[in-house]
Amino acid sequence: MNVFITGASSGIGAALAREFAGRGAMLGLVARRQAVLDELAAQLPGVHRTYAVDVTDRDAIVAAGRDFDAASGGADLVIANAGISVGVLTEHYEDLDAFRQVLETNVLAMAHTFHPFIAPMRHRRRGTLAGIASVAGIRGLPGSEAYCASKAAAISYLESLRVELRRFGVGVVTIAPGFVRTPLTARNPYRMPFLMAPEAFARAAAGAMLAGASYRVIPWQMAFVAKLLRLLPNWAFDRLLANRPYKPRKTEPSP
Fold this sequence. Notes:
This protein has 255 residues and is of the alpha/beta class. It has a single domain, classed as NAD(P)-binding Rossmann-like Domain (Rossmann fold, 3-Layer(aba) Sandwich). Helix content is 48%, strand content 14%. It has eight helices and seven strands, in the order βαβαβαβαβαβαβαα. A seven-stranded parallel sheet has the order 3-2-1-4-5-6-7, with helices on both faces. The model has no long low-confidence stretch (mean pLDDT 91).
């Protein structure tokens, strides 16, 4: 099994790398820091390829994907995991750059990551593309304007891709995590129900990807919460979330 993972240097990405390496996979590990990637690869069983690439650099991530597909003999699973999360308030001019960065990393880079693998997978009539979205993409949360927008876009993008590629034998899986204990969630100044360890999340996510699930919320308790959020009328949702603390903005210190 050959697995390509972006955002592999920490958090969910590193946990997924450990999970799939433990299952005997050859990995293509992508992150911006070469030293961290080398350290991770040295800890894993097997021989793996590392790519010090910023996923928002379209040509660089496409080149990395093509190299891995050729070197591995064909990727079986591509996981677009790289993402950023920061509080954004549209009223602040200085937050507009952060808004753009979140969308570029969480949405456009997902397409950049998948692009080099789609034609080869269609030709082989097999393979799976998996995108890490979020329950935050189901309804908009105050103070998380860019993050929620990006994850909602990711969910719709993955659904479109899934319908398009199904006839070619290529699977597309949407994984929507709840709260996972990572550097991204460490700055959240609010209660995080059903907070998961990254290793537990990785086991569940790997199982969903390999089983060919089309959409999976992890943990299952958050799937129930997500359904409730969808059903809430706007007046009730607005009242429920009105006083929720905001995620710190990029220009603010952590709480």
